[in-house]
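Regression check, glutathione case 106:
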Amino acid sequence: MASGSKGERAAAGQAGDEVASLVLYGYPECPYCRRVLSAIESLGLDVPLRNTMRDDAANTAVYEATGRETVPVLRIEHRDGSVRWMPESLDIVRYLNERSGSAAQA
Ligand SMILES: N[C@@H](CCC(=O)N[C@@H](CS)C(=O)NCC(=O)O)C(=O)O
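Current build output:
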């Protein structure tokens, strides 16, 4: 594949990649997930939560994507169909803040 394809740009997270959907994988009892849920709320975003404690398929999806079961993980699907899985609560909060042009507390 030629360098600079749409998929590569999206995976690199460069400006211009258009996001089609965001889904948070985790569960509300997890403090790191709560950090992200709180940022989502204060930014007024509509990001559904897939509860990995209650939904085996969600837990499996996280494991297949990241190689571990650690949450939170944000699934970012771009309009070109490419998907990026972002672990680490602080990285997710930073990403959401940057997308919103805002600064929710981490
Ligand atoms: N550094 C990570 C820590 C995440 C973390 O430790 N999550 C816990 C739940 S609160 C977890 O998934 N533990 C199970 C595991 O790592 O397999 C973050 O900030 O997102």
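Comparison notes: Residues 30-32, 68-72, 88-90 surround glutathione (CB under 6 Å). Strands lie at 19-26, 49-51, 73-78, 83-87. No diff flagged against the previous build.
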